[in-house]
């Protein structure tokens, strides 16, 4: 009995310590524009470094380390992202790879069929089966792209994480399943798969590795639309998905991250008087930021208790 008590104290202590680390890491970790706080380096404590995708660690975390050659300016970033998503949508359509736009990219579609100009990376999803297929057939393939007007030529790398077989979060280091990377500057699209992880207890419920959860009927049948001027697909219940993820405020707020919604042109225009970055974080009416994978810690209190008990 005394041993039991001692173990319980140990469990509690360990959990409190790791929860403290969790809280510290989450503060200010979300969102795109700010440099990553030093506390994120806590991730280096992982007993074994399993991480497949590597981002620049001292800047913003938005560039693939292998292709990083300097921080890009506003116009270059937008130009990069717009052509990058067109290339992804056109290439996947041509190759018969089923994919749809997700998260902040889907929110951008909702407003005007374009990316949100304050975004740094884009998000698309696919089924776990499709993911396995691209892991087998398309890993490390390079794809050339020429814009419709013939003026822009680019090349993209499709890199598939070897951890795709693991459909639960694990150590949290590999929740992005694949990436579509602009090899000129390292900006990328995050590709995540969704899978039915508990068919017995939760049939038809699909998860990504970052705890986003969908019913099969929320996703399929996919709807046809256009994004950045090219054919694209979106989930069947896109509105519910957006409201669950960002709250309905994200569908009505017209000033955000240094931009203002222009009702005439239906675009988000740069506006110097709209706060961005740290100033915007202080405002209470801000839109909930998309959850970035590096800002979310695996577990929490109960997870840690469970993990320790499990080991015994
Ligand atoms: C894709 O290729 C890279 C580089 O060779 C490799 O590290 C990775 O394990 C591969 N992914 C899959 C899913 O096989």
Automatic annotation (TrEMBL):
Location of the LicD/FKTN/FKRP nucleotidyltransferase domain: 93-200, 206-247
Gene Ontology CC annotation, any one: membrane
Classification via InterPro entries: FKTN/MNN4/W02B3.4-1, LicD/FKTN/FKRP_NTP_transf
Keywords: Membrane, Signal, Transmembrane, Transmembrane helix
Locations listed in the record: Membrane
Pfam family, one: LicD
Any one Gene Ontology BP term: glycoprotein metabolic process
Coiled-coil stretches: none
Signal peptide annotation: 1-19
Membrane topology, record value: Single-pass membrane protein
Highest rank taxon of the organism: Eukaryota
Protein name: LicD family-domain-containing protein
């Amino acid at each position: 009995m005394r041993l039991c008590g001692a173990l319980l104290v140990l469990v509690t202590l360990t959990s409190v310590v790791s929860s403290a680390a969790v809280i510290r890491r989450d503060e200010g970790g979300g969102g795109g524009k700010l440099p990553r706080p030093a506390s994120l380096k806590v991730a280096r404590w992982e007993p074994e470094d399993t991480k497949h995708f590597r981002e620049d660690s001292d800047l913003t975390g938005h560039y693939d380390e292998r292709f990083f050659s300097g921080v890009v300016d506003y116009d270059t970033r937008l130009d990069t992202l717009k052509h990058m998503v067109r290339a992804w949508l056109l290439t996947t359509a041509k190759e018969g790879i089923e994919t749809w736009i997700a998260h902040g990219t889907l929110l951008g579609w909702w407003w005007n069929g374009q990316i949100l100009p304050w975004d740094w990376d884009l998000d698309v999803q696919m089924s776990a089966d499709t993911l396995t297929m691209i892991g087998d057939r398309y890993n490390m393939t390079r794809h050339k792209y020429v814009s419709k007007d013939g003026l822009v030529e680019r090349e993209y790398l499709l890199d598939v994480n070897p951890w795709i077989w693991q459909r639960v979060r694990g150590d949290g280091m590999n929740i992005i399943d694949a990436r579509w990377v602009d090899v000129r500057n390292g900006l990328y699209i995050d590709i995540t798969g969704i899978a039915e992880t508990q068919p017995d207890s939760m049939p038809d419920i699909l998860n990504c590795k970052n705890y986003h959860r969908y019913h099969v009927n929320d996703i399929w049948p996919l709807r046809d639309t256009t994004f950045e001027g090219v054919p694209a697909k979106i989930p069947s219940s896109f509105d519910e998905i957006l409201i669950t993820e960002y709250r309905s405020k994200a569908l009505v707020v017209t000033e955000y991250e240094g931009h203002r919604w222009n009702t005439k042109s239906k675009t988000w225009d740069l506006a110097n008087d709209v706060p961005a970055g740290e100033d915007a974080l202080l405002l209470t009416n801000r839109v909930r930021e998309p959850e970035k994978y590096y800002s979310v810690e695996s577990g929490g209190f109960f997870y840690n208790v469970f993990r320790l008990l499990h080991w015994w």
